[in-house]
Amino acid sequence: MKWQGKNKLVQANYGDSILLSTVDWIGLSSTVIFLRGCPLRCPHCQNYNLQKGDNIVSIYNILKTLMKTKPDFGDNASNIISPLEEAIRGVTAEPLVSAIILSGGEPLMQPEVIRALSPNAKNLGLKIGIETSGCYPKRLRKLIKEGALDKVFLDIKAALRDPEYYKATGVPNVAPRVLDSLRICMESSTPLEIRTTVFPGMPSVSDVKEIAEAIFAFEIKFPNHKFESMVIQQGLPINEEFEPIAQVELENIAKSIEALVNVRVRTTSKRKKSKRPN
Ligand code: SF4
User: For residue 117, with 0-12 CB atoms within 10 Å meaning exposed, 13-18 middle and 19 or more buried, which class applies?
Assistant: First the structure.
């Protein structure tokens, strides 16, 4: 197999990974790779250790470590084309894995990693998705246009305006960028899942309804959209500082918007991640 794409020697600022997940991409088993770095500062961030810092690793090493393969390709840079292919082959050799999700942090801080990984993974039959906060709409549009993404998982954290979005992300003026990302996905007919994580008092039920109304408006405007569902997720504490919202309450929130959008509830648990590659 020949290398697909331009970037042969791509380095990622790597965070962590989950080798096999059956809950992140419903219907597919996926490997989730968390990239390091995020411009937001959400107060309940579960991945706060990935918000900043550097851990620069080649994509090849990430995948090799995930699959515990031990190819001896040497340090010659010209050999790296082949190892990356082989490492992705390692993922496909895992009989259950059929997709890679790039999460974070914010994966769109490293579009070149997505751009390099996507064609090679696709060539081996893997789908590629990203989980994004939506704060880089131009990069998202470009990757969609290039055909790099099979699915977008877009986090919408609050009603799409400040001060609500500021409170949810710790950064002002994010809401217009997220709204733009939503519009780009709906207009482009890219398969889309919206995720809203509910913590005590944030977002409010009326805020969740506003998010659903925004999605509904785009469904009308872009009839060829591939919006699949809005997922109401249970927000978890970092250090037991609050009781998570009960499932029954999450289901009531979902019921309040089911006339507007396809919606489901997801309760979550902290997941075990893999060791970091060297
Ligand atoms: S966008 Fe995600 S990774 Fe970034 S601070 Fe918020 S919760 Fe954490």
Answer: buried
Q: What is the pTM of this model?
A: 0.89
Residue 122 is encoded by which pair of tokens?
A: 């696709």
Segment 126-150 mean pLDDT = 97
pLDDT in tens, 62-97: 777 766 544 444 444 444 555 666 677 777 666 678
Pocket of ligand 1 contains residue 42 by CB under 6 Å:
yes
Pairing of strands 11-21, 56-58: antiparallel
How many angstroms does the Cα of residue 249 sit away from the middle of ligand 1?
24
Residue 199: strand pairing partners: 202
245 lines ligand 1 (CB under 6 A): no
Query: In the chain, what are the domains?
Result: 11-266 (3.20.20.70)
219 to 68, 140, 177, 213, 224: CA distances (angstroms): 43, 19, 19, 10, 8
Sign, Cα dihedral of 11, 17, 20, 24: negative
6-15, 125-134, 149-158: least confidently modelled range: 6-15
**How far from chain centre, in Å, is Cα 219?**
22
- Binding site membership of 132 for ligand 1 (Cβ less than 6 Å): no
pLDDT of res. 41: 97
Residue closest by Cα to atom 2 of ligand 1: 105
Pick from 40, 174, 197 the residue to mutate for probing ligand 1's pocket: most ligand atoms within 8 Å of its CB: 40
3-state secondary structure of 71: coil
- Cα–ligand 1 centroid distance for 102 (angstroms): 14
